[in-house]
TrEMBL record:
Residues 454-645 form the BPL/LPL catalytic domain. One of its GO terms (biological process) is regulation of DNA-templated transcription. One of its GO terms (molecular function) is metal ion binding. Residues 1-446 form the Biotin carboxylation domain. Keywords: ATP-binding, Ligase, Magnesium, Metal-binding, Nucleotide-binding. This is Biotin--[acetyl-CoA-carboxylase] synthetase. It holds the Pfam family Biotin_carb_C. It comes from the Archaea. Residues 120-317 form the ATP-grasp domain. Its cofactor is Co(2+); Mn(2+).
């Protein structure tokens, strides 16, 4: 066994290797760039050496410097982690030439499998199924056209040196080929310094399934089952799980044996991953081999109980695998979420910076592989992964629930993270059913329910409302913006709409509220020519519109709780805010803010309102189209508003009362800070709430909250 290992990497994977070494009694040497001196991989190693300035080229990719550290510190092995130099055959060569063991396959195998066309032909010879495609590099446009016609369109042109979706072009007809061929070659040259491209039949909606293998120096090869890595965005994996929800015992054996056969054919050594595409008919095709430990290796560790990094080290030191294929059992289910410092609201733009609050999740079945802590500053030079959150449970649905719970516990302030986005994935009905492909994120999460103003306007049947629309991705408060616009003369019917609202509106009695992912949130500017005496009835009309729309569109039993909360099964599904600017005898403008929890998932709500709030999606058990909801709501509200400007207050109040909780029930009204108990009697012509107090007197409330469950009111007070 080795005495001392240098980890030629940074961040969580460097720490992961250090942990394995510590448990094996091996000394560790970390290297770090000037940007990483506060990283835990530096702190937890026995020795650590700075190898240069922040850019990876000058530090983590600086072969000379790395070799010098490895030799001077007396290391007998180097672990490359993933990324950086982990699949660089030249680096492997120079490490081994220096008499140091490289923990990974041989340079020649890395080289062979790094070229995708060579890997394809090698694996074809080994008997693995390939996607129908060109036997080798494409020589010309006409060769590409001939092959595409042979396989049938659509086809895909890929870079031989490729990966990560770079240098890939889809072609649907002969006409597409020349441009695609040439631009793929240009991109391939730019990214991989290799202009070679090849062509394959394009598989629609495949799953990305990869098999973990371990191979020792004696030719023993085992597979450790699969990981489903189909949940990706722009070729960046977001969430991985093991086993795949699509897998069967027979398919696992067939695919696993294919991976073993492929590994044996190239005399593979150490840990490796065979990537496959699995089509909807259950056919699988070899894609490529990754010759490194992978980011998502923990899910395999959780379901097999094998420590992959320790096995890598043992194999490199010449030890024989301590198990045979028949010893490997897949037990339970594991999911990994990559927590990145990125803003899902801003196209996943990196959000480096200082972590001001950092509270880790814990409890049964929860594992965090990361290097962050309170006060840690995420450097902007490298990838933006903060940590990997991994859970295990005996069942898949248990693992999903556990992951949601753990994501809820995870508090990271100071930077934006992908935590809320993961919650959306975990709530998606298709994900929960395990019905997903590599198109899942664009098809089921990003496009399905985006509030594109153009699309909303297309469906709009209103004459007045929303004909002018201002759209924002994320704002603190649409009401605040609408008020500013109204004050500077924005016309009647103008709408300020936000994809999400992050908080900041103060409600009637100082409550703040937010509209998380999936909510509908907009403010309308109105300039009605009615007497200020009647102005407050517009918020009753707004509640009627929300309540009716929910009933009509989804058949749910929505009810109004005076004055303008809309409830589903006693839980709040909508809030309405009214801001008025008055002159002595006229209304200057009214800004009405609508917040409706349409597709909001329970775990997206702030914890403290999870018991009292709900959403249409939660009550209906499925996602609905927010766009359609907005169309219908605006149409209904326009009808209410027409009655309002025509001073038909009796009609407004009549409809309103038919949707409120029945009168005669016992209620508590909270007015400022006082509680009044009594019986609900009526709503009068001014829209005020009339209650009969215990002493028999009638009380009239113009503002307040009504509770039909007294305990709740008392708790709130
Ligand atoms: C494909 C494909 C469909 N048909 N090849 C994307 C990255 C690269 N490693 C291979 N990729 C794909 N190759 C054929 N013939 C679809 C993809 C693909 C994909 C693959 C795995 C995981 C996510 C993906 C997302 C989009 C496209």
């Amino acid at each position: 066994m080795f005495n001392k290992i240098m980890i030629a990497n940074r961040g969580e994977i460097a720490l992961r290797v250090i942990r394995a070494c510590k448990e094996l009694g091996i000394s560790t040497v970390s290297v770090y760039s000037e940007a990483d001196d506060k990283s835990l991989h530096v702190k937890y190693a026995d020795e650590a050496y700075c190898i240069g300035p922040p850019p990876a080229k000058s530090s983590y990719l600086n072969v000379e410097e790395l070799l010098e550290v490895a030799q001077d510190s007396g290391c007998d092995a180097v672990h490359p982690g993933y990324g950086f130099l982990s699949e660089n055959a030249q680096f492997v060569d120079s490490v081994r030439k220096a008499g140091i063991e490289f923990i990974g396959p041989s340079a020649s195998v890395i080289k062979k499998l790094g070229d995708k066309t060579v890997a394809r032909s090698t694996m074809k010879k080994a008997g693995l199924p390939l996607i129908p495609g060109s036997p080798s590099t494409l020589k010309s446009e006409s060769e590409a056209i001939d092959l595409a016609n042979q396989f049938g369109y659509p086809c895909i042109i890929k870079a031989s040196g490729g990966g990560g979706g770079r240098g890939m072009r889809l072609v649907f007809s002969d006409d597409d080929v020349p441009d695609a061929f040439n631009s793929a070659k240009r991109e391939a040259e730019a990214f991989f310094s290799n202009p070679d491209v090849y062509l394959e039949k394009y598989l629609e909606e495949p799953r990305h399934i990869e098999f973990q293998i371990l191979a020792d120096k004696n030719g023993n090869v085992v597979h450790l089952g699969e990981r489903d890595c189909s949940i990706q965005r722009r070729h960046q994996k977001l969430l991985e799980e093991a086993p795949s929800p699509r897998m069967t015992q027979v398919l696992r054996e067939t695919m696993g044996n294919a991976a073993i056969q492929g590994a044996k054919a190239v005399k593979y050594e150490n840990a490796g991953t065979f990537e496959f595409l699995l089509d909807k008919y259950g056919n699988f095709y070899f894609m490529e081999v990754n010759t490194r430990i992978q980011v998502e290796h923990p899910v395999t560790e959780m379901v097999t109980g094998v420590d992959l990094v320790k096995e890598q080290i043992r194999i490199a030191s010449g030890e024989e695998l301590p198990f045979r294929q028949s010893d490997i059992k897949i037990s339970g289910h594991s999911i990994e979420c990559r927590i990145n410092a990125e803003d899902p609201q801003e196209n996943f733009f990196p959000s480096p910076g200082k972590i001001t609050t950092y509270n880790l999740p814990g409890g049964p079945g929860v594992r965090v592989d990361g290097i962050s802590y309170q006060g840690y500053e995420i450097p902007p030079y490298y990838d933006s992964m903060v940590a990997k959150l991994i859970v295990w449970d005996p069942t898949r649905s248990g693992a999903i629930n556990r992951m949601r719970r753990a994501l809820d516990e995870y508090t990271i302030d100071g930077v934006k993270t992908t935590i809320p986005f993961h919650k959306m994935i975990l709530f998606n009905a298709y994900f929960r059913k395990g019905e997903y492909s590599t198109n899942f994120i664009p098809k089921r999460i990003l496009n399905e329910d985006k509030l594109i103003p153009k699309e909303i306007k297309k469906g709009l049947k209103t004459k007045l409302l929303g004909q002018k629309m201002h759209y924002f991705e994320e704002v603190a408060s649409t009401n605040k913006i609408a008020k500013e616009m109204a004050a500077s003369g924005a016309e009647e019917g103008t709408i300020v709409l936000a994809e999400t609202q992050s908080g900041g509106i103060k409600g009637r009695i100082g409550r703040e509220w937010i509209s998380p992912f999936g909510g509908v949130c907009f403010s309308v500017i109105l300039r009605p020519k009615v007497s200020p005496r009647h102005a407050s009835k517009i918020s009753l009309a707004a509640a009627t519109a929300v309540c009716k729309t929910i009933r009509d569109l989804y058949g749910l039993d929505a009810k109004i709780n005076w004055p303008n909360d809309v409830l589903l099964h006693g839980k709040k599904v909508s809030g309405i805010l009214t801001d008025m600017a008055m002159d002595v005898n006229s209304i200057k403008y009214i800004v009405l803010g609508f917040g409706v929890n349409v597709n909001v998932e329970m775990l997206s709500f702030p914890t403290k309102i999870q018991k009292t709030a709900t959403s249409i999606k939660e009550e209906l058990g499925k996602t609905v189209l927010r766009r359609e909801f907005i169309d219908a709501l605006l149409l209904e509200f326009e009808r209410q508003y027409t009655n309002f400007v025509n001073e038909q207050y009796d009609v407004i109040l009549g409809e309103y009362k038919s949707l409120t909780y029945p009168f005669g029930g016992r209620v508590i009204v909270k007015d400022q800070d006082n509680l009044y108990e009594g019986t609900a009697i009526d709503i009068n012509d001014d829209g005020a709430f009339i209650m009969k107090a215990k002493d028999g007197s009638l009380m009239t409330f113009f503002t307040g909250d009504v509770y039909d469950r007294p305990e709740e009111a008392i708790k709130k007070a």
